[in-house]
């Protein structure tokens, strides 16, 4: 029964990430429409997210990305953050981070084997 539970979690996470991507697209934040400089910033956020999640396990897939995005949104909303209105994006950290999660979700699962990332780089 474990495989069915995993498949359900994976499917629910993919739907959650698709909904997040759709919400960001509706306010004008789609990775495909970003200026090169802003896309480079989002790519840096994506690399940071990948490294954070990889250091906590050996897989960066839909389940992990959806959980990370939920955590970012929860903390941001508790701090008073509001999603930007259409055309009013000012490059805030939360929006960039969520967009980076969507970019990683589009890229698919990343497997990290031991030795690929040096944990001392982050201290």
From TrEMBL:
What domain of life does the UniProt record list for this protein's source? Bacteria
Protein name (Swiss-Prot/TrEMBL) = Uncharacterized protein
Write one Pfam family the protein is assigned to: DUF6401
Q: Which InterPro entries does UniProt cross-reference here? A: DUF6401
The species this protein was found in: Prauserella cavernicola
């Amino acid at each position: 029964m474990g495989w069915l539970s995993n498949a359900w979690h994976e499917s629910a996470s993919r739907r959650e990430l698709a909904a997040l991507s759709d919400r960001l697209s509706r306010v004008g934040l789609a990775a495909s429409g970003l200026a090169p400089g802003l896309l480079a910033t989002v790519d840096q956020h994506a690399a940071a997210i990948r490294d954070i999640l990889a250091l906590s396990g050996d897989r960066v897939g839909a389940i992990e990305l959806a959980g990370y995005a939920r955590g970012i949104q929860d903390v941001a909303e508790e701090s008073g953050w509001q999603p930007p209105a259409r055309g009013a994006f000012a490059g805030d950290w939360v929006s960039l981070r969520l967009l980076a999660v969507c970019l990683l979700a589009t890229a698919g699962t990343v497997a990290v084997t031991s030795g690929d990332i040096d944990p001392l780089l982050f201290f």
